[in-house]
Specification:
Strands 2, 4, 5, 6, 9, 10 and 11 form a seven-stranded mixed β-sheet that branches. A four-stranded antiparallel β-sheet has the order 1-3-8-7, with no helix packed on it. Helices cover 0% and strands 55% of the residues. By secondary structure, it is mainly β. The chain is globular and about 40 Å long. The chain contains no helices and eleven strands.
Length: 115
């Protein structure tokens, strides 16, 4: 079992920045790739970014050039640095990890971009 706790969400003005964190505990030795997803009101959950255990990253087209995913293996934490935020980024953001026993999800953190 892996437990994930996200933090760092909140209200930010358009053009602003936020940094999300997701701390993992439990069977962390089995964690491979780590992800960020988001779900906006009335929409399906969508993939945002991925980072492998080796540190390779991929971002969705909607956030390329604005969001950066990173991980600190010593702290068992994955981050999402979000810059140049726009109203369309408003969503609940979830982290997820892949392990040999399957995918685990965090509870989500709300990000609201509004003036």
């Amino acid at each position: 079992q892996v437990q994930l706790v996200e933090s760092g969400g909140g209200l930010v003005q358009p053009g602003g920045s936020l940094r999300l964190s997701c701390a993992a505990s439990g069977s962390i030795a089995s964690i491979a790739a780590m992800y960020w997803y988001r779900q906006a009101p009335g929409k399906e959950r969508e993939w945002v970014a991925r980072i492998t255990s080796a540190g390779s990253t991929n971002n969705a087209d909607a956030v390329k050039g604005r969001f950066t995913i990173s991980r600190d293996n010593a702290k068992n934490t994955v981050y999402l640095q979000m810059n140049s935020l726009i109203s369309e980024d408003t969503a609940v953001y979830y982290c997820a990890v892949d392990t040999v026993k399957g995918r685990y999800w965090g509870q989500g953190t709300q990000v609201t971009v509004s003036s």
